[in-house]
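# nightly structure sweep
# worker-07 picked up a monomer target from the shared queue
# config: single-sequence mode, recycle default, output format = structure tokens
# input follows
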Amino acid sequence: MVKLYLDEDVNILLAKLLKAKNILNETTQESGMLGKSDLEQMGYAIKSEAALVTHNRVHFEKIYEDYIYHQKNHNGIIILIRREAYVMANRLAKFVLSHHEIKNQLWYV
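# output follows
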């Protein structure tokens, strides 16, 4: 199963809802990464062997393109479309349970 790292843009309630569904995840608050740059968040996700989950489409599309261009590996980026927290949790849980490998991929959920 894909481990998730939720950046600070994502509602913390989502982490609790995902944990209730046995989806392994960590937040920027839990990791002490609040206020760090997007590149630092990406680096932490890589170090933690987790896919990064964000609402920040513009910045993370650029980071993804840079990683592809420089042939850098990462554990995946999930651009989560803003919705009500319970809807996002259900969609993300279904995605994680049906995708066992998303390394070096960018997904919109």
